[in-house]
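Figure 2 data, in text form.
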Amino acid sequence: MRSCISSCSVCCVSTNLGLSFNACDLHLKHARLTLLQVEIHVLDENDNAPVFSQSKYHALLWENAALLTSVCQVYATDSDLGSNGQVVYEINRRQSDPSELFVIDSATGLIRVNNPLDYESQPYHELIVRARDNGIQPEYSSTLVAVTVLNINDNRPTINIMFLSESGAEEVSEGASMGHYVARISVYDPDLGEVNSVRASLEGGDGKFTLKQSDEFVFSLCVNGELDREKSDLYELTIVASDFGAPTLFSERTFLLKVSDENDSPPVFEKHLYIVNISEDAFPGSRLLHVRAGDLDEGVNSVVRYSMIKPDQGFPFHIDSESGLITTETPLDHEYHFTVLATKWNECAPQQASATVIITVLDENDNAPVFTHNAYFYTLQERPSPQGLMGAVRATDKDSGKNSQLSYFLLSDAKHFQINPNTGLLHLARSLDYELANVHAIVMKGAIPRSSHAKLQVLVLDENDNSPVFSQETYHVSVSEGAPVGSEILQVIATDNDQGSNGEVMFSLLEDTLAVFSIDESMGILRTAQLLNREAQGQYTFHVTATDGCSQGPRSSIATVTVDIEDVNDNAPAFAENPIVCLVSKDTAVNQTVVTMRAGDSDLGNNGTVIFDLSESDKFFSIDRNTGEIQLKASLSPGIFVTRLLHVIASDRGTPSLSSSSLVRIHLEEEPKLRFTEDSYMTAIPENSKTAGKSAKCGGIWPSRTRTEPYCGVRASSPYPSSVKPMPFSRFLFLFFKYP
């Protein structure tokens, strides 16, 4: 029989719960028991919102607090676990701090200053700080942070000025009395408390003005002394306002106060006495003089009217009332004295000044002097002696006395000529230069006070006083050595400032140039007279003479000409030795130099640079194009060849390139064998010669080379030292004859 538990209810009060179950059967004699351990894990749900430690936070902060200054720190907890219990802080910008004056650390809840604060704009701030968890469906809670901004003295007082003149301009009348109000000045400080109080002071004005306080923030600018625009018409005034804060802040306002004019100054003539001379034949309406009276006032207050007191009827003068110009009305015949008046009007009575005028009538000098000739002509040699007398001019005047006294003047070219002002004698002041001016046209004048004019013309005769001058002291030119005969090289230019034949220039070559060059004597064109060869001479330096055409004592000058001969590729390379016979041993190593070709080219640059080539590629030998070294490129063995012929071509790098060739004969050396130099030998043996006597000498040679072929290259296992020049050698055989 069995029993079972159909259900089990467990109440959990913690996140982890451990349970044990025992099961047994109901057999009375042999009961069986089983134990079951059960662990239950309770999973968290985000069912708790964050909770702030305070429902409202309070903070005090100076308005000059620096950015990122700590304000306060809020704190909230969440009893959930994991991300459901992690709290994030933020400021609700929709409901508070839209200007973002504050910022909060989302993790720590620390609030800091984010933008400058201003007590005067907003002394109190309320921030709504919201805390939320990081659950999938986050929970929120909020708290209020109240920030009180503390005032400091950070604002300067402001100054406003209202001027009380009729036009509202910055001015005051010079007739203003003591205590007259000039301007109303109001001051204000936006700071609160004691720093809000403001005091004001005045600077400048030479004591002519003062400040009077009307109430706490209003002052009046008043006249404090007598004003005189004619002495000082402008005052620079400065209003200084300061508060009572610590430190004290100042502000100032500077302005220019103009003193307006009052009609309080009489006119004054420039002179008390005017003396004028006028000719007796002055026409009616002739201007006599301007009388002027000044007035220290300005504007309409300075308007002056002129008049004169006429001594009798028929007075011959008139004065313009506005300008003060005095003119004649009728002909004059004697001396006149009269008084002129200057008058200005003000509200009370006219103001007036007077001056005396004396007119002296003079006799008229009505005749001009007359020269005896309208024009004077002189001819002078170039470079005459200075101070020489040229001649004289004469003039007459029909007037008498001082009016007939004449003075002579030169109106032009006074640096070359002089005239005696009293006698009219003409002198030469300095030497004349034909090349600078060959004709001098001068105007003379006779004066005091009437004048007349006459012409003086001086013709200068040329002298040969200038040598030809080359356009250059030295000429440097280049010409190709292939230039044909008659080629134009350059044109030398020389000029002579003299005139006529004295200024004609002829060219010639000063020294013998071996007839290589010629010059056109009139044009100065330098040409080649024969074919040039740079290899014979690469540069010519000679002198060209320029001579003028004066028949007596011609003058000349010299210029240096340097002609560089430019190279052309007209020389083919030349071998130092041709043909060349070489001996090479079978033991010669590969890449070893057998012989070095030598070739030269008398041209320059690329035209003279030589390169080497074989006319045909060779199986055993190659040549270095730049050095000319012929090298073995394959091993040799006896009997592989007897003689090898190579055709070497030497070319230059000119355009077009020139070349030459050389024959190189290379012998493969065999083992040397001794042979007699002659096929037979004959000798005479004297009768009765001693037994075993010396009767003849036979010679032998190694047949590997002959005297007619130059030795070159490398000879392996040579019987001679390398320092010894190979020569034919011999062995000697002595024959002995014995008679019975």
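Caption note: The chain has a mean pLDDT of 79.
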